[in-house]
Amino acid sequence: MIRQRLSLLAAVLSLVAGPLRAGERIAVVSQDAGTLSLLEAGDDVVTAHPVGKAPAGIALSPDGMAIYVAFPDGGHVAVLDRATGSVQRTMPVPGQPFGIAADSRFIYVSDWSKDRVIKLDAASGRVVATAAVGGSPAGVVLGGGRLYVAGRESGDVTVLAADDMRVLATVPTGDGPYALALSPDRRTLYVVNVRSDDMAVVDTATLTRTTRMPAGRMPYGVAVTPDGAHVLVTSQHGNSLVVIDAAHLTQEAQVPVGLYPEGVVADSGGRAYVANWFSADVSVVDIAGQRELGRIKVGDGPRFLALLPPPSGGVKGTAP
To answer: Cα–Cα 20 to 30 A to 118, which of 21, 76, 135, 187?
Structure first.
């Protein structure tokens, strides 16, 4: 039985290795297990590293060399080494750090308990500034010199200037906004609302919501493919990945995945990776073929994912 499981895992990993470029990795944060799992192109094993109790949001430094993970219960952000996944140092953060984003100098963390965003100096960990945002802030996205923060309990997204943390706008999006994603050209922000079972589309030029559309039962994660052609939404209560045509805002498919899917990322090879919270695995999905190719076992409670580019490749969409 053990040999069968190992053979199945190796087969799934061989599927994954194809689209990933040499040096690319998928980082998976497992909240229940307290681990970071790394899947590397061309490798046949998933390496899991203990990082601490109940990790949450994950972000990358622009050069892709450092991984930042927020710990709501521990009140800190951990800096992990890309090569090993090991914790290099921690930064104390007041409150409950949850969502996280980073540029070349600063780390931006949503404080779930105090309805604010905290800006940290990435080198020293010093708190540089704070800004009030919507209730129970969750997902955080950085792009175009702006910071977008989903307020789950206030039903809106707060838009701030990243340099001085000024509030530029508050955009109503729906009931329970949780996760966000920017289009590659940064002209469109996609926001999933976990309670109203839909996705809001925000024009970043006018900072207005242009539409809302159904996005599965309790949508919890969202990503945009590198070419901008598709928006991918995880339907937690539908146990599926909703594939949306970005140009026409129409659903193309609902692909069955694992139990209670949350985080999702897409690579440049046409595949999506979905963290299945309750089944403790990651689904590998062929986006064009609209089918699940296989699953990769990871630590219990995977909820957050990040696509790590090759070390010299940089990270798209993280610069301010």
So the answer is: 187
Which residues contact residue 158 at a Cβ distance below 8 angstroms, ignoring those fewer than 6 apart?
Answer: 117, 131, 133, 134, 137, 148, 149, 151, 167, 169, 170
Q: What pLDDT, on a 0 to 100 scale, did the predictor assign at position 187?
A: 98
Share of the chain above pLDDT 70, in %: 88
Please tell me which residue, 317 or 107, carries the higher pLDDT value: 107
> Whole-prediction pTM value?
0.90
What pLDDT score does 5 carry?
Answer: 40
Q: Rounded CA gap, 179 and 233, in Å?
A: 10
Q: Domains of the chain (ranges plus CATH)?
A: 2-308 (2.130.10.10)
Report the b/e string of 265-295 with b at 16+ CB within 10 A.
bbbeebbbbbbbbbbbbbbbbbbeeeebebb
Residue 264 Cα to chain centre, angstroms: 6
Contacts of 10 (CB under 8 A, 6+ apart): 44
Q: How confident is the model at residue 82 (pLDDT cuts 50, 70, 90)?
A: confident
Percent of the chain clearing pLDDT 90 (strictly above): 80
Burial label for 164, CB within 10 Å (0-12, 13-18, 19+), is exposed
Buried b (16+ CB within 10 A) or exposed e, 100-122: bbbbeebbbbbbbebbbbbbbeb
